[in-house]
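Re-running Phage protein to confirm reproducibility after the cluster update. Everything else is unchanged from the original entry.
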Amino acid sequence: MSLKDRLSKSKHKLIEQVTIDGERINLCRPTNPERLAVLDAAREAGEIGEDNKPLTNEGGLRLIARVVAAVAYDPETGERVFNPTDSADIETVYRAPWLEDVSKPAIAALHPNLEEVRGNS
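Result of re-run:
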């Protein structure tokens, strides 16, 4: 297998592993198309405006739920736990009592900070 083939099959980078109600969840860095899909879905749902800023407080919280859905992976299968474009999955995450507990590391997984970007260059 060529280097190109191996790199094209790379797994998402693990940013942090969290435990929710005794279940381990991997928070992984999404690809650029996955990031854009989250923003497009949030815009389409009326959660954010064209400037990518929440239109309401509820829109902001739903965007956070969408981010969590985008970065939460099952550590055993490597598959996403929730679909960030599925309204039922977003509703589940939005209403979850653990949303606030995982929001900060999930947002960090979606958007690397400047120091991390510099460290990777």
